UniProtKB/TrEMBL annotation:
Pfam families given in the database record: NYN
Name of this protein: NYN domain-containing protein
NYN domain location: 11-160
Record-level Gene Ontology MF annotations: RNA nuclease activity
InterPro entries: NYN
Species this chain originates from: Dysosmobacter segnis
Organism taxonomic ancestry: Bacteria, Bacillati, Bacillota, Clostridia, Eubacteriales
Domain of life per record: Bacteria
């Protein structure tokens, strides 16, 4: 994409058909948090002499994985405006985006360029109208599922991958992972101390965590599983088998607590799982979200 004159940034407003993007990324088993999309979008714009003045996303946030993880609030913490489209159909989201873009264009002369993030060719009339009003418009597409005709009606075409190739020094997903790690360590330490007093230990069950922790950590279940996988791949946690009554369960704990848990008789060496395939859990959770 051609850059503007060096030293003269242009003001950009970004409007995102977020449900379209969210579902396209689910197909690829990833999400905007994992990609650090909003952090990288701002960095990309800065590097290309653009100043982001507004980002608005449109989505039905009642989708179960988004609703349970308070995803709308998470996006707002990025400084992103969110528009809940409810269950009023795809055409409603397109119509709302069109109305809001046109309203911004006619009421705000400080917006030099519009970024429309969508794979949908239904956006082409909007693109034509923006250009007819002497404003630049760029289309951001996701993956390979976009309709090529949408790009023909824009001044420029940016692929999501180009934005995600940008390096950033800070990712919010890293903050979430660090906070969750501290929570995990605190929980296990408290349970070990409690065991010394009461002889009881409440295991940290993987399935329970992936169902109930998402509302506290504010990440989707598949992303929380990906965070846990990162701990496992880095050698920071281990998985083990145990029984809750007669029910077989899988628990996990920091690797630094393994010897302590075994020496106190909370688990046995034979309970430790040599290799746990948490990627299967991640794949299953993404598949569930796509249903």
């Amino acid at each position: 994409m051609e850059d503007k004159q060096i030293g003269v940034p242009t003001n950009v407003a970004v409007f995102i058909d977020y449900e379209n993007v969210y579902k396209a990324l689910l197909e690829e088993k990833t999400n905007v948090l994992r990609l650090a999309f909003f952090e990288k979008l701002r960095k990309w714009c800065s590097e290309h002499q653009r100043r982001v003045v507004r980002i608005v996303v449109y989505c039905n946030f009642d989708n179960m994985d988004l609703h349970e993880s308070f995803h709308q609030s998470v996006l707002q913490s990025y400084g992103v405006e969110t528009v809940h489209t409810s269950n009023q159909g795809k055409n409603y989201a397109d119509l709302k985006i069109t109305i809001d873009v046109l309203s911004s264009m006619y009421s705000n002369n400080n917006i030099d360029e519009f970024f429309i993030m969508s794979n949908d060719k239904d956006m082409t009339p909007l693109l034509n109208t923006i250009r007819a009003n002497k404003r630049n418009v760029a289309v951001i597409t996701t993956g390979s599922t976009y309709n090529p005709s949408i790009c023909e009606f824009a001044d420029s075409h940016i692929e999501l991958e180009e934005i995600c190739d940008v390096e950033v020094t800070h990712k919010i997903i890293d903050d979430i992972a660090n906070a969750y790690w501290n929570k995990l360590e605190s929980y296990i330490n408290a349970q070990i101390s409690n065991f010394g007093v009461t002889g009881k230990y409440a295991h940290y069950e993987l399935k329970y965590v992936l169902t109930n922790e998402i509302r506290y950590s504010k990440v989707m279940s598949y992303e929380l599983a990906t965070i846990i996988k990162g701990f496992y791949d880095d050698g920071n946690i281990f998985f083990y088998n145990y029984k809750y009554g007669t029910k077989p369960c899988v628990g996990f704990a920091p690797i630094s607590k393994k010897a302590d848990l075994i020496s106190k008789g909370i688990i046995k060496e034979a309970d430790v799982i040599a290799t746990y395939d948490i990627q299967k859990d991640i794949d299953d959770l993404y598949a569930k979200a796509l249903r």
